Amino acid sequence: MRMRVLWLNAGLLLPLDKGGKLRTWHLMRHLAARHQVTYLSFADPSASAADLAGMRQVCDRLETVPRREVPKHSPRFFLQASRALVDPAPYAVAAYRSAEYRARVMRLLAEQPFDALVCDFLVPAVNLPARLPCPTVLFTHNVEAEIWRRHAETAKGWRRPLLRSQWRRMRRFEGRTLSRFDAVLAVSEADRGTFARLYPGRLRAPARVIPTGVDAQYFAAAASLPADSHRLAFVGSMDWLPNEDAVLYFCREILPRIRRVEPRVALSIIGRNPTPAVRRLAGEVPGLEITGRVDDVRPHVGRASLSIVPLRIGGGTRLKIYEAMAMGRPVVSTTVGAEGLPLVPGRDIAIADDPDAFADAVLALLSDPAARRRMAATARSLVAERYDWSAVAGALVDAIRAATPSLHAETLAPQLLGEVRS
Description:
By secondary structure, the protein is an alpha/beta fold. The protein has 2 domains: 4-213 and 389-421, Glycogen Phosphorylase B (Rossmann fold, 3-Layer(aba) Sandwich); 216-386, Glycogen Phosphorylase B (Rossmann fold, 3-Layer(aba) Sandwich). Helix content is 45%, strand content 15%. The protein contains 17 helices and 13 strands. The radius of gyration is 22 Å and the shape is globular.
């Protein structure tokens, strides 16, 4: 049966410059090939015509609500953040509260029956009406409360109590939101277990896992690129705090240890919107390349011998790990960085959690080309055979179908339309 799905997100998926966007894009591309998808999101008024047109690859109908992102560290950002101090919702959610978005949701639901509403990440849920006329699915990419808990644990000074407050608000909001949906999707068994631990009895049914995938064929093209035997690569959106923390931690705590043994080691930081703290590293760390946003990560990661994921904060699963593996580049990660991925340490990936151990793991692989080749070959075979998006996407369709036992939109649609008109 061809399903009619209303998909809610906080933004357009294009450009594909963040892990969450990539995951949703590949899954929706397969969903939209056989089902009717209406996609609603905020969009910057300056969004390119090409990006708007490109969204037609993953939906039949695109609906957008204008919204400009507030630049971080701007006066407006700090004003908005100060108001959030008295908001019961966490700032990361409250910043997206919108009467216009809510009205658009209600109008779309009143216009036609949908077999399912999918809320992508927690954020759109802040704009949902109390009653919905169709089965609902929450697609989580992280356990958001865990990210904020880790923020608070690693913060220092005045930032710690502020982040602890945001963590508590996020935990309350996340728990309430999970309980509103008929089905909750997680990206790993680890996240599913964390939901059960943090919110016992709150979910209507146990969360279902939609594994992380990779476009194995696309990234395999980089496997034959000649690598610099002393270059490392880090990939990630550099305006996301966990990634910023990871590169600052690596450059200040781990890289000096590596260079005491091998001074020729260089690092490429590849990702959009480097924060001021990240940009300052260029003047502090010799041999550091900060690319900013790139159209194609493959040539940049392909230049490196190793991919590093020194995350101390985070949740969900890292697409960058599977992408590096598909490119034939061994990965050195923290436990948090590789959390949720079914990988065997020492065979598929190297895991190290303190600065000395992480430096030793990097040096061991840099000094042993044969070990790098063995790990690269094993990891490439794993992701190509088991985690290509074409194999993973079926799990999403099955999960949505499981949440839609019957269509009952007709019963509430007239009521919703009345609310919109009033």
